[in-house]
Amino acid sequence: MQRHESLQPLSREHHQTLKIARRLQWGEPDADLLRDLTEHRGELEAHFATEESIGRQALRQCPTDTTLAGQLDRMQREHRQIEELLTAVLDGDGEQSNCHRLGELLVAHVRFEERELFNHLQEGCLPGQAGEPA
Fold first, then answer.
1. Closest by CA position to 117, among listed 60, 62, 70
2. Alpha-carbon span 73 to 112, nearest angstrom
3. Contacts of 44 (CB under 8 A, 6+ apart)
4. Alpha helices, H only, 27-95
5. Which of 4, 11, 28, 34 is the most exposed place for a label (fewest CB within 10 A)?
6. Burial of 121 (0-12, 13-18, 19+ CB in 10 A)
7. What distances in angstroms separate CA 39 from CA 20, 32, 35, 64, 109, one per listed residue?
8. HSE (CB half, 13 Å, CA atoms) of 91?
């Protein structure tokens, strides 16, 4: 499915996140990995803010869509979980089990957004879609 223009940059960013997530899952938490994760942290924060903004706009577009509301709630809960675990890992709790857990959470989160949330958003809840009021 061709992504809506507002979601395309997010999908590209997901690809970068998956690269780091796989390293977290299968690699040792060495200095290179932790440095890359530190650098990626700011990108994740901006990414989450953009997704949440798009989600708020979509909910205004489709205020009675309970599926969307549930998906957006899940997205936000997972964003907070990722942020908390990322902080723990970068604040010195970079043991392999936490890195592995963060990697698993990132992969599952990206899959959820790409396979469920983004597809649902494209069914008519994004402002500016053809036939929909902006």
1. 70
2. 12
3. 17, 82, 83, 86
4. 31-61, 66-90
5. 28
6. buried
7. 11, 11, 6, 39, 20
8. 6
pTM listed for this prediction: 0.88
Residue 88 structure tokens? 């723990």
Identify the band that residue 130 occupies on the pLDDT scale cut at 50, 70 and 90.
Answer: very low
Element (H, E) at 13: helix 8-26
**pLDDT (tens digit per residue) in 53-82:** 999 999 999 999 999 999 999 999 999 999
Q: CB-based burial of residue 102 (10 Å sphere; 0-12 exposed, 13-18 middle, 19+ buried)?
A: buried
What is d(CA 50, CA 42) in angstroms, rounded to the nearest whole number?
A: 12
Q: Which two tokens stand for residue 68?
A: 């969307």
